[in-house]
């Protein structure tokens, strides 16, 4: 399926921080996906819909709230009776500034090309969301009114997520425990998903909703923590350590390690290793 590009400069006037719209989705299958350089959130006010991506599709029902990152091609299609969505387009810089001030929002407004985050709102939450949306719809398109809408919403979702983290499904809890074995995380995200005994998409959605991480994020964190222990406690070379954790591209290993610890593996070893003969 071909992809068309949408840009915030074509949608938002100068000074506008967001765009608000209400849409009834067509039931015709989209001929193209669209990519975008802005953040977006929408929710299904009534009916059912299909979020179509390059990897497949996600079926949405009334009350589903979806956060979309930039550079994630997608399209929407209505299913059955009238499918009504409320959509808010958000200027990229405005969301970047918000996440810098409130890191908790990063789970919902993650970096480009990341999977959508879907959260279901029951009738009580949906009613409150609709009331807030009416106020936003009538407000000036400035940062003040946008944040007056976003911050209570994100705070509410973050509190709910914290309350739910202790109640992981048994199949996921068991898999995460076993994933700490190098024999498992050496196989990457596929090793974790295999332990779960569920479809990759289901595992990814559950982990994103409960832990704020994809299977790859979780496994790579385990890999890097193991690598750090090896760097501190063994004379193994960097290539040997990378191979041991199942990463055979050294550039990729360095990128993941720097992202986790803020320094290169070699710098980490020099800083932390004591009493171990340094490898040549």
TrEMBL record:
Recorded hits in PROSITE patterns, A to Z, give:
HTH_ARAC_FAMILY_1 (PS00041), HTH_ARAC_FAMILY_2 (PS01124)
What's one Pfam family here? HTH_18
- Name the Gene Ontology molecular function terms of this record: DNA-binding transcription factor activity; sequence-specific DNA binding
Keywords, sorted A to Z? DNA-binding, Transcription, Transcription regulation
UniProt xrefs under InterPro entries: Homeodomain-like_sf, HTH_AraC, HTH_AraC-typ_CS, RmlC-like_jellyroll, RmlC_Cupin_sf, Tscrpt_reg_AraC-type_HTH
Q: Where is the HTH araC/xylS-type domain?
A: 202-271
Extract the PANTHER family matched here.
ARAC-FAMILY TRANSCRIPTIONAL REGULATOR (PTHR43280), HTH-TYPE TRANSCRIPTIONAL REGULATOR EXSA (PTHR43280:SF2)
What is the protein name given in its UniProt record?
Transcriptional regulator, AraC family
Which species is listed as the source? Celeribacter halophilus
């Amino acid at each position: 399926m071909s992809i068309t590009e949408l840009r915030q400069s074509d949608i938002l006037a100068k000074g506008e921080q967001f765009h608000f719209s209400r849409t009834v989705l067509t039931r015709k299958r989209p001929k193209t996906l669209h990519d975008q350089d802005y953040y977006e959130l929408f929710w299904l006010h009534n009916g059912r819909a299909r979020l179509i991506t390059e990897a497949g599709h996600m079926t949405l029902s009334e009350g589903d709230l979806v956060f979309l990152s930039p550079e994630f091609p997608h399209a929407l299609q209505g299913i059955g009776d009238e499918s009504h969505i409320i959509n808010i387009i958000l200027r990229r810089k405005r969301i970047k500034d918000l996440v810098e001030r409130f890191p908790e929002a990063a789970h919902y407004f993650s970096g480009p090309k990341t999977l959508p985050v879907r959260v279901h709102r029951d009738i009580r939450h949906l009613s409150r969301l609709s009331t807030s949306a009416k106020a936003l719809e009538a407000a000036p398109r400035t940062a003040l009114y946008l944040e007056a809408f976003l911050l209570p919403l994100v705070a509410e979702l973050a509190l709910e997520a914290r309350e739910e983290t202790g109640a992981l499904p048994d199949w996921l809890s068991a898999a995460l425990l076993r994933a700490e074995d190098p024999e498992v995380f050496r196989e990457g995200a596929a090793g974790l998903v295999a332990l779960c005994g569920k479809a990759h998409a289901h595992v990814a959605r559950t982990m994103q909703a409960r832990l704020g991480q994809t299977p790859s994020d979780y496994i790579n964190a385990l890999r890097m923590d193991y690598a750090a222990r090896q760097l501190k406690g063994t004379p193994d070379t960097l290539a040997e350590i990378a191979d041991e954790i199942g990463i055979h591209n050294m550039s990729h290993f360095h990128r993941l390690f720097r992202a986790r610890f803020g320094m290169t593996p070699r710098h980490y070893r020099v800083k932390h290793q004591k009493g171990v003969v340094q490898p040549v």
